């Protein structure tokens, strides 16, 4: 930056003597002219409007001589082209020229830079004089302010699209806008909305108070209805504070110390589960790894909050008793037992409900010693995950027969609705999860599932409302604060962070979730999706395949994630095939349009493109490509190419 024409005009390089004030005006005139050039007569008439034409032209020649003397550098400030004057290379390296160029950029960071360069008004300290020159100053300064203020509002909106803009940049842009026009309510309103979209409620209140005080002091009025409407929307979108884990008096056990109440309450009414070592054929010894496998399954199951698992040591102690005796002595409602099939190294397991020993589930697993070192943890996860699902499904059937509403029933009803993704079912599922929280505010999985419905709704609405993302993040954090050992809150928070482009936090949360719940199929498929957006599509595909092994008949969002991963691997045919498994293609229209476009299936791509244009009117191919949280620009460009082929602008 050599020449500064915005704010106090000055040169960043030394000049020979004092640079003439009308030299700054001349450079600004040339830069602001539509063609970048002006005739000598037009310049002279503006700068010396009270002098005869011949005298004005003489003054202009003298001014050009002074400019050249003051500027002893190779790149001139002003060049001559016949009867016209043109802004030279050094003039084009001014803050004004940079602002005019960057404000048209498609890159957000460059438009932000344009606003940050506006450190004052145009030629702020130069006397405007009178006559035509004064009119030129009024018109150009007004045009410059409108450009910066409009650009500032647009930039604030784009910066906070994901609810995660740097607060300091919002502050500085607000300072620039308010410095240009301190009494402009529209600038306050844009700043208030930006802070609200970013989730900074303190800054919203502070800015609104400053606006209210200014309006009453300067105009004796209150904020306009448009501003009050934004304040109401922000207030309605403030995430609820995390729930306090405090129970009412009737929940307390009489005479029980307060410190013990929550622990006792967390087990009350939960079904009890016991796992027993598998039986063998008479005369055979149970392999130590087979016993260890059952212990590992018990440890995996013990982290579920929906049932209580008897410690393996106790259940193994009564393993020789009859089935009904074991259930009675351990006071369990569910028992997991089995035997090793002779000669084939197959472990047959069954889940029974007591009293009555009714078998509600049975399966067989390969536990050959040769495969144990490789498959031990995978088999353990599969068994733990499957047993958990079966117990939860059985509990739902029993709860439905109970006329008393229960949080867990609503939670599972909501999970069923999440199997197919469309906007109506998402909102119905969220309603179920909210009903669960009305009964039990400390039910962490319900908070996590609410967050899941929110970020998926954000995606399906075009990814333009950061308030939804902020609410999702707050719900995920509530789940973590209630149950920090539960993986669900961590992986939902990771997905929200991914869509907010906080890539480091997302990966950190996913690693925590994988350590806490390595056998969670939902976590694995979303972790795989996140890795593909980070540029690690092959690692993402491995987790997608593992999630299908754990959940071979998955809900729709598995296929959505798999298609996304395949697309990032540039396996476009595979991505299209995965989309066919979904009950509705509404959520994967972008993938289908782009993949068909990239494969050259133009007619099919345009069919999907027309549906996209109807669903998201006004959005360009680049807007839709940027909706996916891709870290690598080449992935964004690839999706944009496909969408352009599909007919999007």
Task: Describe the fold and architecture.
It is a single chain. By secondary structure, this protein is an alpha+beta fold. It has 29 helices and ten strands. A hairpin with a 5-residue loop joins strand 1 and strand 2 (10-11). Mean pLDDT is 82; it is low at 241-266, 373-379 and 399-405.
Oligomeric state of the chains?
single chain
Main β-sheet, spatial strand arrangement:
7-6-8-9-10
Strand tally, please? 10
Tally of contiguous helical segments: 29
- From the alpha-carbon coordinates, what is the Rg to the nearest angstrom? 34 Å
- Which outline best applies? elongated
**Largest beta-sheet details:** 5 strands, mixed
Spatial gap, N to C terminus = 35 Å
Summarize the amount of helix as a percent range.
55-70%
Structural class: alpha+beta
Mean pLDDT: 82
- Show unreliable segments: 241-266, 373-379, 399-405
Strand content: 5-15%
Write the layout of secondary structure elements.
Elements: E1 3-4, E2 10-11, H1 21-32, E3 37-39, H2 40-47, H3 53-70, E4 78-81, E5 84-87, H4 95-102, H5 108-117, H6 131-159, H7 167-180, H8 185-197, H9 201-218, H10 225-237, H11 258-267, E6 272-275, H12 288-301, E7 308-309, H13 312-317, H14 323-330, E8 334-341, E9 346-353, E10 358-366, H15 372-400, H16 407-417, H17 423-439, H18 444-460, H19 466-482, H20 487-499, H21 503-516, H22 521-533, H23 537-550, H24 556-568, H25 572-579, H26 589-599, H27 602-615, H28 621-627, H29 633-645
Parallel strand pairs: 6-7, 6-8
Antiparallel strand pairs: 1-2, 3-5, 4-5, 8-9, 9-10
Helix pairs in contact: 2-3, 4-5, 5-6, 6-7, 6-8, 7-8, 8-9, 8-10, 12-15, 15-16, 16-17, 17-18, 18-19, 18-20, 19-20, 20-21, 20-22, 21-22, 22-23, 22-24, 23-24, 24-25, 25-26, 26-27, 26-29, 28-29
């Amino acid at each position: 930056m050599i020449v500064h024409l915005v704010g106090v005009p000055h040169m960043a390089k030394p000049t020979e003597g004092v640079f003439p004030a009308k030299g700054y005006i001349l450079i600004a005139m040339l830069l602001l002219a539509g063609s970048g050039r002006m005739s000598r007569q037009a310049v002279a008439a503006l700068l010396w409007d009270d002098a005869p034409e011949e005298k004005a032209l003489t003054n202009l020649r003298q001014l050009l001589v002074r400019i050249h003397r003051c500027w002893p550098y190779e790149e001139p400030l002003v060049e001559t082209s016949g009867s016209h004057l043109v802004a030279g290379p050094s003039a084009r390296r001014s803050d004004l020229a940079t602002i005019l160029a960057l404000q048209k950029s498609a890159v957000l960071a460059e438009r932000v830079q344009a606003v940050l360069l506006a450190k004052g008004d145009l030629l702020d300290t130069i006397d405007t004089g009178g006559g035509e020159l004064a009119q030129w100053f009024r018109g150009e300064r007004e045009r410059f302010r409108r450009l910066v203020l409009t650009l500032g509002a647009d930039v604030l909106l784009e910066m906070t699209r994901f609810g995660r803009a740097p607060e300091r940049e919002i502050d500085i842009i607000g300072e620039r806008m308010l410095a240009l026009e301190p009494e402009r309510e529209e600038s306050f309103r844009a700043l208030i909305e930006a802070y609200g979209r970013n989730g900074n409620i303190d800054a919203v209140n502070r800015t609104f108070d400053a606006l209210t005080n200014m309006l009453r002091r300067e105009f004796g009025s209150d904020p306009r209805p448009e501003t009050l409407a934004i304040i109401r929307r922000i207030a309605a979108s403030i995430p609820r504070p995390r729930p306090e884990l405090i129970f009412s008096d009737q929940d307390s056990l009489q005479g029980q110390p307060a410190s013990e109440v929550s622990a006792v309450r967390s087990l009350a009414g939960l079904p009890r589960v016991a796992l027993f070592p598998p039986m063998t054929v008479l005369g055979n010894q149970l392999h130590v790894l087979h016993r260890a496998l059952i212990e590992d399954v018990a440890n995996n199951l013990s982290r579920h909050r929906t049932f209580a698992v008897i410690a393996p040591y106790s259940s193994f102690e009564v393993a020789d008793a009859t089935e009904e005796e074991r259930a009675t002595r351990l006071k369990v409602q569910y028992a997991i037992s089995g035997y090793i099939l002779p000669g084939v190294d197959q472990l047959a397991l069954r889940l029974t409900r007591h009293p009555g020993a009714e078998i509600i589930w049975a399966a067989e697993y390969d536990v050959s010693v040769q495969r144990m070192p490789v498959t031990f943890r995978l088999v353990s996860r599969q068994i733990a995950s499957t047993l958990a699902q079966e117990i939860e499904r059985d509990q739902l059937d029993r709860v439905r027969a109970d006329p008393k509403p229960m949080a867990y029933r609503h939670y599972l009803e909501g999970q069923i609705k999440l199997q197919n993704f469309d906007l109506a079912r998402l909102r119905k599922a969220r309603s179920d999860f909210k009903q669960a929280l009305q009964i039990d505010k400390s039910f962490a999985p319900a908070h996590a599932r609410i967050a899941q419905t929110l970020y998926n709704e954000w995606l399906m609405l075009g990814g333009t409302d950061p308030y939804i993302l902020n609410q999702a993040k707050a719900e995920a954090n509530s789940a973590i604060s209630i149950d920090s050992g539960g993986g669900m809150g961590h992986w939902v928070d990771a997905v929200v962070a991914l869509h907010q482009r906080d890539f480091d936090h997302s990966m950190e949360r996913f690693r925590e979730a994988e350590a806490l719940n390595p056998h969670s199929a939902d976590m694995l498929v979303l972790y795989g999706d996140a890795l593909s957006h980070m540029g690690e599509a092959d690692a993402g595909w491995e987790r997608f395949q593992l999630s299908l092994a754990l959940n071979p008949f998955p809900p729709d969002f598995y296929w959505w994630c798999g298609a996304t991963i395949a697309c990032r691997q540039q396996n476009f045919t595979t991505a299209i095939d995965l989309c066919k498994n979904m009950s509705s293609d509404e959520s994967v229209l972008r993938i289908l349009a782009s993949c068909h476009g990239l494969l050259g299936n133009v007619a099919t791509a345009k069919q999907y493109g027309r549906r996209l244009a109807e669903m998201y009117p006004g959005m360009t191919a680049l807007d839709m490509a940027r909706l996916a949280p891709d870290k690598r620009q080449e992935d964004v460009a690839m999706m944009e190419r496909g969408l352009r082929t599909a007919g999007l602008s």
